[in-house]
Write a structure and sequence with these properties.
15 helices; 76% helix; disordered C terminus
Protein backbone atom coordinates (compact mmCIF):
# COMPACT_ATOMS: atom_id res chain seq x y z
CA UNK A 1 0.00 0.00 0.00
CA UNK A 2 1.43 3.39 -1.00
CA UNK A 3 2.46 5.68 1.80
CA UNK A 4 0.36 8.80 2.35
CA UNK A 5 2.71 11.67 1.47
CA UNK A 6 0.31 14.45 2.50
CA UNK A 7 1.34 16.77 5.33
CA UNK A 8 0.40 15.54 8.83
CA UNK A 9 -2.26 18.23 9.23
CA UNK A 10 -4.07 17.09 6.08
CA UNK A 11 -3.85 13.44 7.14
CA UNK A 12 -5.36 14.24 10.53
CA UNK A 13 -8.12 16.25 8.84
CA UNK A 14 -8.88 13.30 6.56
CA UNK A 15 -9.12 10.98 9.54
CA UNK A 16 -11.57 13.31 11.24
CA UNK A 17 -13.68 13.23 8.11
CA UNK A 18 -13.99 9.46 8.36
CA UNK A 19 -11.34 8.26 5.90
CA UNK A 20 -9.46 5.01 6.50
CA UNK A 21 -6.41 5.13 8.79
CA UNK A 22 -3.92 3.04 6.85
CA UNK A 23 -1.47 2.96 9.79
CA UNK A 24 -3.97 2.15 12.52
CA UNK A 25 -3.83 -1.63 12.21
CA UNK A 26 -0.05 -1.73 12.26
CA UNK A 27 0.15 0.59 15.27
CA UNK A 28 -2.48 -1.42 17.13
CA UNK A 29 -0.59 -4.65 16.46
CA UNK A 30 2.69 -3.14 17.71
CA UNK A 31 0.95 -1.81 20.83
CA UNK A 32 -0.56 -5.22 21.56
CA UNK A 33 2.84 -6.88 21.19
CA UNK A 34 4.36 -4.42 23.66
CA UNK A 35 1.50 -5.00 26.09
CA UNK A 36 1.94 -8.78 25.82
CA UNK A 37 5.70 -8.48 26.26
CA UNK A 38 5.19 -6.39 29.39
CA UNK A 39 2.84 -9.00 30.86
CA UNK A 40 5.29 -11.78 30.00
CA UNK A 41 8.19 -9.93 31.60
CA UNK A 42 6.22 -9.31 34.80
CA UNK A 43 5.17 -12.97 34.90
CA UNK A 44 8.80 -14.09 34.47
CA UNK A 45 9.99 -11.77 37.22
CA UNK A 46 7.32 -12.95 39.65
CA UNK A 47 8.21 -16.56 38.83
CA UNK A 48 11.87 -15.87 39.60
CA UNK A 49 10.89 -14.24 42.89
CA UNK A 50 8.83 -17.30 43.85
CA UNK A 51 11.72 -19.56 42.90
CA UNK A 52 14.20 -17.57 45.02
CA UNK A 53 11.87 -16.87 47.95
CA UNK A 54 12.87 -19.95 49.92
CA UNK A 55 16.56 -19.31 49.31
CA UNK A 56 16.23 -15.71 50.47
CA UNK A 57 14.60 -16.77 53.76
CA UNK A 58 17.23 -19.48 54.28
CA UNK A 59 20.05 -16.99 53.66
CA UNK A 60 18.61 -14.46 56.07
CA UNK A 61 18.15 -17.05 58.81
CA UNK A 62 21.63 -18.52 58.27
CA UNK A 63 23.33 -15.11 58.34
CA UNK A 64 21.56 -14.11 61.55
CA UNK A 65 22.36 -17.39 63.31
CA UNK A 66 25.99 -17.34 62.21
CA UNK A 67 26.41 -13.80 63.50
CA UNK A 68 24.69 -14.62 66.80
CA UNK A 69 26.75 -17.76 67.47
CA UNK A 70 30.06 -16.13 66.51
CA UNK A 71 29.39 -12.99 68.54
CA UNK A 72 27.54 -14.28 71.61
CA UNK A 73 28.83 -17.83 71.97
CA UNK A 74 32.40 -17.58 70.64
CA UNK A 75 32.95 -14.00 71.78
CA UNK A 76 34.08 -12.62 68.44
CA UNK A 77 33.70 -8.81 68.69
CA UNK A 78 33.51 -8.40 64.88
CA UNK A 79 31.79 -11.52 63.48
CA UNK A 80 31.93 -10.51 59.83
CA UNK A 81 33.25 -13.68 58.22
CA UNK A 82 30.71 -16.09 59.73
CA UNK A 83 27.57 -14.57 58.12
CA UNK A 84 29.48 -13.97 54.88
CA UNK A 85 30.47 -17.64 54.81
CA UNK A 86 26.89 -18.71 55.53
CA UNK A 87 25.47 -16.59 52.70
CA UNK A 88 28.30 -17.66 50.38
CA UNK A 89 27.48 -21.29 51.00
CA UNK A 90 23.77 -20.77 50.33
CA UNK A 91 24.55 -18.71 47.24
CA UNK A 92 26.24 -21.72 45.69
CA UNK A 93 24.28 -23.67 43.12
CA UNK A 94 21.72 -25.82 44.86
CA UNK A 95 22.98 -29.35 45.01
CA UNK A 96 26.54 -28.18 45.70
CA UNK A 97 26.23 -26.61 49.14
CA UNK A 98 27.94 -29.38 51.09
CA UNK A 99 30.78 -29.30 48.58
CA UNK A 100 30.89 -25.49 48.78
CA UNK A 101 31.26 -25.65 52.57
CA UNK A 102 34.24 -27.98 52.26
CA UNK A 103 35.74 -25.75 49.55
CA UNK A 104 35.17 -22.68 51.71
CA UNK A 105 37.04 -24.16 54.65
CA UNK A 106 39.84 -25.49 52.43
CA UNK A 107 40.23 -22.12 50.71
CA UNK A 108 40.41 -20.30 54.02
CA UNK A 109 43.06 -22.71 55.31
CA UNK A 110 45.18 -22.31 52.19
CA UNK A 111 44.80 -18.52 52.22
CA UNK A 112 45.74 -18.27 55.89
CA UNK A 113 48.83 -20.46 55.41
CA UNK A 114 50.10 -18.65 52.32
CA UNK A 115 49.32 -15.21 53.75
CA UNK A 116 51.09 -15.79 57.07
CA UNK A 117 54.13 -17.40 55.43
CA UNK A 118 54.66 -14.58 52.94
CA UNK A 119 54.03 -11.87 55.55
CA UNK A 120 56.79 -13.48 57.61
CA UNK A 121 59.13 -13.38 54.61
CA UNK A 122 58.35 -10.03 52.91
CA UNK A 123 56.17 -8.09 55.36
CA UNK A 124 53.03 -6.11 54.46
CA UNK A 125 52.32 -3.42 51.90
CA UNK A 126 50.92 -2.85 48.45
CA UNK A 127 53.44 -4.88 46.45
CA UNK A 128 53.46 -7.60 49.10
CA UNK A 129 49.68 -7.85 48.74
CA UNK A 130 50.05 -8.35 45.01
CA UNK A 131 52.65 -11.06 45.53
CA UNK A 132 50.52 -12.88 48.14
CA UNK A 133 47.42 -12.92 45.91
CA UNK A 134 49.41 -14.07 42.86
CA UNK A 135 51.12 -16.87 44.76
CA UNK A 136 47.85 -18.01 46.39
CA UNK A 137 46.09 -18.26 43.02
CA UNK A 138 48.97 -20.00 41.24
CA UNK A 139 49.55 -22.55 44.01
CA UNK A 140 45.89 -23.51 44.32
CA UNK A 141 45.56 -23.85 40.54
CA UNK A 142 48.73 -25.97 40.45
CA UNK A 143 47.24 -28.20 43.16
CA UNK A 144 44.16 -28.75 40.97
CA UNK A 145 41.75 -26.90 43.25
CA UNK A 146 38.33 -25.79 42.08
CA UNK A 147 37.51 -22.20 41.17
CA UNK A 148 35.72 -21.73 44.51
CA UNK A 149 38.84 -22.73 46.48
CA UNK A 150 41.04 -20.49 44.34
CA UNK A 151 38.79 -17.47 44.94
CA UNK A 152 38.45 -18.18 48.65
CA UNK A 153 42.20 -18.66 49.12
CA UNK A 154 42.96 -15.39 47.32
CA UNK A 155 40.28 -13.48 49.27
CA UNK A 156 41.52 -14.85 52.60
CA UNK A 157 45.12 -13.98 51.72
CA UNK A 158 44.00 -10.41 50.99
CA UNK A 159 42.29 -10.18 54.37
CA UNK A 160 45.28 -11.58 56.20
CA UNK A 161 47.70 -9.12 54.56
CA UNK A 162 45.50 -6.04 54.90
CA UNK A 163 44.11 -6.65 58.39
CA UNK A 164 47.05 -8.30 60.14
CA UNK A 165 48.81 -5.01 60.99
CA UNK A 166 45.73 -3.71 62.86
CA UNK A 167 44.09 -6.94 64.05
CA UNK A 168 46.04 -9.50 66.02
CA UNK A 169 45.40 -13.25 65.87
CA UNK A 170 43.11 -12.98 62.84
CA UNK A 171 43.91 -16.40 61.45
CA UNK A 172 42.08 -18.65 63.91
CA UNK A 173 38.86 -16.57 64.08
CA UNK A 174 38.80 -16.42 60.29
CA UNK A 175 39.10 -20.19 60.02
CA UNK A 176 36.53 -20.79 62.77
CA UNK A 177 34.08 -18.31 61.21
CA UNK A 178 34.37 -20.03 57.82
CA UNK A 179 33.65 -23.39 59.42
CA UNK A 180 30.83 -21.89 61.50
CA UNK A 181 29.18 -20.09 58.57
CA UNK A 182 29.23 -23.13 56.32
CA UNK A 183 27.98 -25.37 59.10
CA UNK A 184 25.11 -23.04 59.95
CA UNK A 185 24.11 -22.84 56.29
CA UNK A 186 23.92 -26.63 56.09
CA UNK A 187 22.01 -26.75 59.37
CA UNK A 188 19.42 -24.32 58.05
CA UNK A 189 18.96 -26.10 54.73
CA UNK A 190 18.93 -29.61 56.21
CA UNK A 191 17.16 -29.26 59.58
CA UNK A 192 15.74 -25.85 60.45
CA UNK A 193 14.23 -24.75 57.15
CA UNK A 194 14.49 -27.52 54.55
CA UNK A 195 12.70 -26.79 51.31
CA UNK A 196 10.22 -29.28 49.91
CA UNK A 197 12.33 -30.93 47.17
CA UNK A 198 9.34 -31.89 45.04
CA UNK A 199 7.97 -28.37 45.15
CA UNK A 200 11.35 -26.97 44.13
CA UNK A 201 11.55 -29.36 41.18
CA UNK A 202 7.96 -28.74 40.12
CA UNK A 203 8.53 -25.00 40.00
CA UNK A 204 11.76 -25.45 38.05
CA UNK A 205 10.30 -28.00 35.62
CA UNK A 206 7.19 -25.99 34.84
CA UNK A 207 8.84 -23.43 32.49
CA UNK A 208 10.68 -26.09 30.47
CA UNK A 209 7.67 -28.38 30.07
CA UNK A 210 5.29 -25.49 29.39
CA UNK A 211 7.63 -24.20 26.71
CA UNK A 212 7.81 -27.64 25.06
CA UNK A 213 4.03 -28.16 25.13
CA UNK A 214 3.27 -24.66 23.85
CA UNK A 215 5.60 -24.96 20.85
CA UNK A 216 4.21 -28.37 19.97
CA UNK A 217 0.72 -26.86 20.01
CA UNK A 218 1.86 -23.97 17.84
CA UNK A 219 3.45 -26.40 15.38
CA UNK A 220 0.28 -28.48 15.15
CA UNK A 221 -1.78 -25.36 14.41
CA UNK A 222 0.79 -24.10 11.93
CA UNK A 223 0.81 -27.40 10.03
CA UNK A 224 -2.96 -27.58 9.93
CA UNK A 225 -3.19 -24.02 8.57
CA UNK A 226 0.03 -24.22 6.53
CA UNK A 227 1.24 -21.15 8.41
CA UNK A 228 4.99 -21.21 7.96
CA UNK A 229 5.56 -18.04 10.02
CA UNK A 230 3.93 -19.45 13.15
CA UNK A 231 5.90 -22.70 12.92
CA UNK A 232 9.12 -20.74 12.45
CA UNK A 233 8.33 -18.67 15.56
CA UNK A 234 7.76 -21.88 17.52
CA UNK A 235 11.18 -23.13 16.40
CA UNK A 236 12.89 -19.91 17.49
CA UNK A 237 11.20 -19.97 20.89
CA UNK A 238 12.14 -23.58 21.49
CA UNK A 239 15.76 -22.88 20.65
CA UNK A 240 15.95 -20.45 23.57
CA UNK A 241 15.44 -23.19 26.15
CA UNK A 242 18.89 -23.43 27.72
CA UNK A 243 17.96 -21.41 30.78
CA UNK A 244 14.86 -23.50 31.49
CA UNK A 245 16.75 -26.79 31.15
CA UNK A 246 19.67 -25.56 33.27
CA UNK A 247 17.25 -24.48 36.02
CA UNK A 248 15.51 -27.84 35.88
CA UNK A 249 18.76 -29.82 36.12
CA UNK A 250 20.01 -27.62 38.97
CA UNK A 251 16.76 -28.05 40.87
CA UNK A 252 17.06 -31.83 40.61
CA UNK A 253 20.56 -31.73 42.08
CA UNK A 254 19.37 -29.47 44.89
CA UNK A 255 16.43 -31.72 45.65
CA UNK A 256 18.67 -34.78 45.84
CA UNK A 257 20.99 -32.93 48.21
CA UNK A 258 18.07 -31.87 50.43
CA UNK A 259 16.65 -35.39 50.48
CA UNK A 260 20.10 -36.72 51.44
CA UNK A 261 20.95 -34.21 54.18
CA UNK A 262 17.54 -33.45 55.68
CA UNK A 263 15.98 -36.12 57.91
CA UNK A 264 12.60 -34.43 57.42
CA UNK A 265 12.82 -35.09 53.68
CA UNK A 266 14.19 -38.64 53.67
CA UNK A 267 10.74 -40.03 52.88
CA UNK A 268 10.84 -38.10 49.57
CA UNK A 269 13.80 -40.00 48.17
CA UNK A 270 11.79 -42.55 46.22
CA UNK A 271 9.61 -39.81 44.69
CA UNK A 272 12.70 -37.95 43.50
CA UNK A 273 13.88 -40.96 41.52
CA UNK A 274 11.32 -40.22 38.77
CA UNK A 275 12.45 -36.65 38.33
CA UNK A 276 16.16 -37.46 38.49
CA UNK A 277 15.73 -40.05 35.76
CA UNK A 278 13.50 -37.73 33.70
CA UNK A 279 15.99 -34.90 33.22
CA UNK A 280 17.97 -36.46 30.35
CA UNK A 281 15.01 -37.80 28.33
CA UNK A 282 13.23 -34.45 28.65
CA UNK A 283 16.35 -32.78 27.30
CA UNK A 284 16.35 -35.25 24.39
CA UNK A 285 12.63 -34.62 23.81
CA UNK A 286 13.42 -30.91 23.51
CA UNK A 287 16.11 -31.58 20.92
CA UNK A 288 14.00 -34.01 18.91
CA UNK A 289 11.08 -31.60 18.97
CA UNK A 290 13.40 -28.97 17.54
CA UNK A 291 14.09 -31.29 14.59
CA UNK A 292 10.37 -31.99 14.24
CA UNK A 293 9.53 -28.29 14.06
CA UNK A 294 12.40 -27.47 11.71
CA UNK A 295 11.22 -30.17 9.30
CA UNK A 296 7.66 -28.89 9.61
CA UNK A 297 8.87 -25.55 8.29
CA UNK A 298 10.49 -27.30 5.31
CA UNK A 299 7.36 -29.38 4.75
CA UNK A 300 5.26 -26.24 4.38
CA UNK A 301 7.85 -24.55 2.17
CA UNK A 302 7.96 -27.57 -0.16
CA UNK A 303 4.16 -27.75 -0.27
CA UNK A 304 4.17 -31.40 0.83
CA UNK A 305 0.91 -33.09 1.88
CA UNK A 306 -0.22 -32.72 5.50
CA UNK A 307 -2.61 -35.57 6.36
CA UNK A 308 -5.10 -34.64 9.08
CA UNK A 309 -3.65 -37.14 11.62
CA UNK A 310 -0.23 -35.44 11.48
CA UNK A 311 -1.21 -32.26 13.39
CA UNK A 312 -3.31 -34.46 15.68
CA UNK A 313 -0.23 -36.52 16.52
CA UNK A 314 1.76 -33.41 17.44
CA UNK A 315 -1.15 -32.12 19.50
CA UNK A 316 -1.21 -35.39 21.45
CA UNK A 317 2.52 -35.00 22.14
CA UNK A 318 1.85 -31.57 23.63
CA UNK A 319 -0.89 -32.98 25.84
CA UNK A 320 1.42 -35.79 26.93
CA UNK A 321 3.95 -33.22 28.12
CA UNK A 322 1.29 -31.39 30.12
CA UNK A 323 0.03 -34.63 31.66
CA UNK A 324 3.58 -35.63 32.55
CA UNK A 325 4.08 -32.32 34.35
CA UNK A 326 0.79 -32.66 36.25
CA UNK A 327 1.24 -36.30 37.28
CA UNK A 328 4.77 -35.66 38.47
CA UNK A 329 3.63 -32.63 40.47
CA UNK A 330 0.98 -34.61 42.36
CA UNK A 331 3.19 -37.66 42.81
CA UNK A 332 1.12 -39.97 40.61
CA UNK A 333 2.39 -42.65 38.27
CA UNK A 334 2.22 -40.94 34.81
CA UNK A 335 -0.10 -43.46 33.19
CA UNK A 336 -2.15 -40.81 31.35
CA UNK A 337 0.98 -39.22 29.92
CA UNK A 338 2.13 -42.58 28.59
CA UNK A 339 -1.26 -43.29 27.02
CA UNK A 340 -1.27 -39.91 25.29
CA UNK A 341 2.26 -40.45 23.94
CA UNK A 342 1.20 -43.76 22.40
CA UNK A 343 -1.90 -42.11 20.96
CA UNK A 344 0.39 -39.58 19.27
CA UNK A 345 2.36 -42.44 17.72
CA UNK A 346 -0.84 -44.10 16.54
CA UNK A 347 -1.96 -40.90 14.81
CA UNK A 348 1.51 -40.58 13.29
CA UNK A 349 1.12 -44.09 11.88
CA UNK A 350 -2.19 -43.14 10.29
CA UNK A 351 -0.59 -40.03 8.77
CA UNK A 352 2.26 -42.08 7.36
CA UNK A 353 -0.16 -44.57 5.87
CA UNK A 354 -2.14 -41.73 4.24
CA UNK A 355 0.97 -40.62 2.38
CA UNK A 356 3.63 -38.05 3.20
CA UNK A 357 6.62 -36.52 1.46
CA UNK A 358 10.26 -36.63 2.51
CA UNK A 359 10.03 -33.93 5.20
CA UNK A 360 6.71 -35.35 6.32
CA UNK A 361 8.30 -38.73 6.93
CA UNK A 362 10.97 -37.05 9.05
CA UNK A 363 8.26 -35.30 11.07
CA UNK A 364 6.61 -38.70 11.64
CA UNK A 365 9.95 -40.16 12.70
CA UNK A 366 10.46 -37.34 15.20
CA UNK A 367 6.98 -37.85 16.63
CA UNK A 368 7.96 -41.44 17.33
CA UNK A 369 11.32 -40.50 18.81
CA UNK A 370 9.91 -37.71 20.98
CA UNK A 371 7.16 -40.02 22.22
CA UNK A 372 9.81 -42.56 23.11
CA UNK A 373 11.70 -39.90 25.08
CA UNK A 374 8.54 -39.00 26.99
CA UNK A 375 7.87 -42.65 27.81
CA UNK A 376 11.40 -43.00 29.18
CA UNK A 377 10.89 -39.77 31.17
CA UNK A 378 7.76 -41.34 32.66
CA UNK A 379 9.81 -44.24 34.03
CA UNK A 380 9.68 -46.82 31.20
CA UNK A 381 12.90 -48.56 30.20
CA UNK A 382 14.19 -47.62 26.76
CA UNK A 383 13.80 -51.09 25.27
CA UNK A 384 10.23 -51.38 26.52
CA UNK A 385 9.45 -47.87 25.27
CA UNK A 386 10.70 -48.74 21.78
CA UNK A 387 8.52 -51.87 21.72
CA UNK A 388 5.46 -49.87 22.75
CA UNK A 389 6.21 -47.31 20.03
CA UNK A 390 6.41 -50.01 17.36
CA UNK A 391 3.16 -51.59 18.51
CA UNK A 392 1.33 -48.24 18.59
CA UNK A 393 2.62 -47.22 15.16
CA UNK A 394 1.31 -50.40 13.58
CA UNK A 395 2.09 -51.96 10.22
CA UNK A 396 1.53 -49.13 7.80
CA UNK A 397 1.82 -49.43 4.06
CA UNK A 398 5.24 -48.50 2.78
CA UNK A 399 6.00 -46.95 -0.60
CA UNK A 400 6.44 -49.60 -3.31
CA UNK A 401 10.01 -50.71 -3.91
CA UNK A 402 9.72 -50.52 -7.70
CA UNK A 403 10.31 -47.40 -9.76
CA UNK A 404 7.59 -45.09 -11.05
CA UNK A 405 5.22 -46.18 -13.77
CA UNK A 406 6.20 -45.18 -17.31
CA UNK A 407 5.23 -41.61 -17.97
CA UNK A 408 4.90 -40.70 -14.27
CA UNK A 409 7.28 -38.25 -12.62
CA UNK A 410 9.60 -39.77 -10.00
CA UNK A 411 8.22 -39.66 -6.45
CA UNK A 412 10.20 -37.96 -3.70
CA UNK A 413 12.09 -40.34 -1.43
CA UNK A 414 10.44 -41.23 1.85
CA UNK A 415 12.55 -42.05 4.88
CA UNK A 416 10.74 -44.64 6.98
CA UNK A 417 10.23 -43.46 10.52
CA UNK A 418 12.38 -44.98 13.19
CA UNK A 419 11.65 -45.00 16.90
Amino acid sequence: MARDKRPPLMRRTALREGLVDIDGARIAEATEQLRHRGRATLHDRLHRVRMAGGLAVQAGLAAGLAYLISHKVLGNPQPVFAPISAVGTLAASVGQRFRRTVELIAGVGIGVGIGDFLIYLVGTGAWQLGVVVTVAILLTIFAGASVAIVIQAAATAVLIVTLSPSTQNLEIPRFVDAFLGGGVALLVTAVLLPLNPLRVINRAARPALDLLAAQLDATADGLRNRDRASVQRALERLRNNKEELATFAEAIEGAKETATLSPARWHRRSELVHYAAAADPIDRAMRNTGTLIRRSVTLIEDDEPVPDPMPDAIRHLAESVRLLKHEFSVGEDPQKARERSLRAVSEAGRAYGAGVGFSGSVVIAQVRTTASDLLVASGIEQEEANRCIRDAFGEQERPAAGGPEPGEPPKPPAAPPVG
